[in-house]
Amino acid sequence: MRMIRSFVPGLLLLFLLVGFVPVAQAQDDPGQALLESLATESYAEKSEAIEAIITSGDERSRRWLEELLDGKLQRHKDSGRFVIVVENRGRSWPVIDALSFDDAGEMSRRDLDRIGINNALRGQLQSALAVLDLYTDDVDDRREAARELLGSMDATLVEPLREVIADEGDAEVRRLLEQGLAIHRLSEGDIDAIAELEGSLNSRVRAALNSAARSDDPLIADAASAALDDIEQKRRLNSGLETLYFGLSLGSVLVLAAIGLAITFGVMGVINMAHGELIMLGAYTTWAMQQLLPGQPGLALVLSIPAGFLVAALAGIAIERGVIQFLKGRPLETLLATFGVSLILQQLVRTVISPQNRTVVSPDWMSGSLMINEGLSLTLNRLFVLGFALVVFAGLMLVMRRTRLGLEVRAVTQNRAMARAMGIRATRVDIMTFALGSGVAGLAGVALSQLTNVGPNLGQNYIIDSFMVVVFGGVGNLWGTLVAGLSLGVINQVLEPWAGAVLAKIIVLVFIILFIQKRPRGLFPQKGRAAEG
Amino acid sequence: MWLLQPFNEGATRLFLGVLLACLALVTVLHLAVPAGHPLHVSAYTVTLLGKYLSYALLAVAVDLVWGYLGILSLGHGAFFALGGYAMGMYLMRQIGDRGTYGDPILPDFMVFLNWDSLPWYWLGFDMPWFAFLMVMLAPGALALVFGFLAFRSRVTGVYLSIITQAMTFALMLAFFRNEMGFGGNNGLTDFRELLGFDLRTDVTRLGLFVATGLALALGYVLCRAIVTSKLGRVSVACRDAEARTRFLGYRVERFQLFVFVVSAMLAGVAGALYVPQVGIINPSEFSPIFSIEIVLWVALGGRGTLYGAVIGALLVNYAKTVFTGAMPDAWLFALGGMFVLVTVFLPKGVAGLLSYRLKRKEHQSDDSSTPQEATS
């Protein structure tokens, strides 16, 4: 504050020296005339002046009207110069020129005349500002403006809007504007307007119909309640779809986290408690990639997909060679040893990087949402993850079913001795399988980095869920994992609204525990000899 | 009588002798040696040792199911915590109107949540006999239901481990909820007295330490009695060849259920002894990582020996105290490293190392009590 104060005399001096020069130039500006017409006592004349500004097409008109609405458009008493007050505190206010928007130093508040408005003018200005946006070139801005206008139309706007509709190229904007007009007509008692509003999910439309349903005219009231019921049904459908979407999204995360486990646990029979930490490594790879390529989150994310796979796969190979190969045929010991590995990896990340969460930026093309209709929009990042999960699943199926590696893996798991007798190098297959499963965990990490915080505990949060998914789906069955993951996700989301997030999770866990009692081999049990492993 | 059977074993007598001698030694060093003397054992150390002993009892309980039944429970922390909560509820009721809000009946957190009466499951916990009964019955009941369902449908091996882990995880989430009526995140704390003894005095702490040591001795004898009885022989048979035992006509699931429930009750007692010494019980005792840590104590000490579990619990927890004090960052490295090294290089644990030495001396070749992992 002290510094600013010491500047004030200097600025004032500057103003005195140069202050009057722009005014001379401004006399030629048509804007000056437009603003002059505002500086009148009569509100009727002001209203006309506002209309004139709107129709002038001057690109500054938006700013003028906004400042006028805020009471910041003011007139210098002596020079007749129009300024915009930047901050009205203290005695002298910093202002900018209303025509050029350049800094105009400070002016004493006593020298300034506010251009006053009343409530009628305020309403006119608000809708005028909304209409003003309908003239912009950007379609999204126009839609936004049209949405804003819904429900706040009055008689003065009807005529100008009809012209706008006639000129409008975008169907969505036209539809919105016509809806707005229909709301206006409905408020004036036009029963035909209800037909136009039917099926809209906009909250303003509902508000208008609600007030119409309480109308004295029984015809209008009945028609409005019928339309409301219709809308209510549609809304229920929408929220159902939304739950389904969130469920599938959660499910896709579970599938991604579990599918690598389905390979290492399900196919190889190795309990890898460090699986969650491999996911974490994938997520941290994404973060590291973004640190290496600052300013290009999209490219970094795309590159993280192979990088995350590679990092996690290498870590997986290290775990397999370093620990698991010594514990063949001792599943419980494998569980404990890999749990130890998971603790070490967690602490490693805490010590080397940071115990705090790291932020991974989402690229532009993944943020935002896809609007299906007015009541339902799907967030893009979740949509991408859902697609990614399906792609990874398909790729994994392809590897297991159509490649030599997949054939060898299946051969070794079904009968190790026989496979070796046929010339398959079982040890190499073990390494490759474990690397594949771990790499997929890395991919899950890359995807998860777009949805949750990347921190040392990331993996821990998913390990129990992942095991649940694999066990629920049936060990050794990739399809089972997909179905189990997606259905658990949906069940969780369906339960959430009435049970709360934590209770829903508990219910799902208890459900799985009970389910395993009933069908110990999961949804899709393996058949044949492998089942008695 | 089968309960006295273990006293005929040299190893058990040795174990009990060492344990009781340690209890007496600590008592003497605490009471008779003046403070400031290098041999004086402070009240802090006594409480710490008491905590270790309650962990040791918990480890014995885990070893009973893992070492002699082949069931790797990753949820024993849940039984421990349930016992602890039962004790905690009794201690909460003992606070009476001395809490922050001064309500004669409701614990502070319930007043804070604007509850106007005790939930039904808190009734009766003002009576010590009821609370002490619940210390065993609550974990026992959970183990009974869970075990009945699991063993009946022959869920064993890794599957059982994973669903026990899910069980304790679900319980942790549940106990974190304030609506459950167990103090939510903060758990139960601010205890004052137990059976009229002020928990903050050194004498009470010493008493709790000795009580824990005696409980460990009793638990050990009980487990020893179980594993040396016919029941124990069948359990070992279930561990090594479940299908064969079943074909011989034994109802495997009944043996499993019985031993599992006994083990859960022992874990509950351990929890109940732990809570007054530590002064708090909160949902973190339910966390899966704690349960899995217990298994490490047993694995490090040597599973299937019982005394190995005690050694493991004491060693690991002493190491934890040292590490988390000196280098907190290194503790998880050490713990993780222990998991890996013990399973890979020391499958029979410290006890295995000891008996290997003994065997080499005595040229013995057969020890029937060492576990052989069934490959299922």
TrEMBL record, chain A:
It is found in: Cell inner membrane. Keywords: Amino-acid transport, Cell membrane, Membrane, Signal, Transmembrane, Transmembrane helix, Transport. InterPro entries: ABC_transp_permease, ABC_UrtB_bac, BCAA_transport_permease. Residues 1-26 form the signal peptide. It comes from the Bacteria. It is a multi-pass membrane protein. Its main location: membrane. The chain crosses the membrane at residues 244-271, 299-319, 380-400, 467-491, 497-516. The keyword Hydrolase does not apply. This is Urea ABC transporter permease subunit UrtB. Belongs to the binding-protein-dependent transport system permease family. LivHM subfamily.
Automatic annotation (TrEMBL), chain B:
Keywords: Cell membrane, Membrane, Transmembrane, Transmembrane helix. Pfam families: BPD_transp_2 (PF02653). The chain crosses the membrane at residues 67-92, 129-151, 158-176, 203-223, 255-274, 294-318, 330-350. It is found in: Cell inner membrane. It is a multi-pass membrane protein. Its main location: membrane. It comes from the Bacteria. This is Urea ABC transporter permease subunit UrtC. It comes from Halomonas gemina.
